[in-house]
Amino acid sequence: MDGPALSLLKKLGARGLTLGSVESVTGGLFASKICDNPGASKVFKGSLVAYNNDLKTHLADVMPETIETYGVVSQEVADEMALGGARLLGVDICISFTGNAGPGVEPGTAKAGDVYVAVAYDERGLYHFHWSFKGSRNLIRQQAVDKALEELEALI
Description:
This protein is α/β, with parallel strands linked by helices. The protein is 43% helix and 22% strand. The protein is built from 6 helices and 5 strands; from the N terminus they run H-E-H-E-H-H-H-E-E-E-H. It has a 5-stranded mixed β-sheet, sandwiched between helices.
């Protein structure tokens, strides 16, 4: 069981809120951390892992122009992923992750370790996060999920 994820689930459940995710850089790691906990299905509706840009545009409602203008690793893409995911999954809160886990540089300015996160939270609006992590691909992904769990709990 995962302490921060379980704590978040309990808080969401107590408030009657549902959660979903749209993941790129984390490749489903956030959803996995959430689903490691018993009772997750009462709160967590699901996740879309959209590693490919076509999936981001076709399933998560990211505009191709947004990717072309800002790059796939950008706050603008994270925002559209979260908003599109909230609509698609029918959740109160949807978190999205896009980033570069390395080792190379993404087209544009995204260096290894850059991660953009957005949280679409019903009528409260859209929250934005940008972090720069260091380490291996898996360590960057893990740090992003851990930090996101902290930030989500602080928002609830």
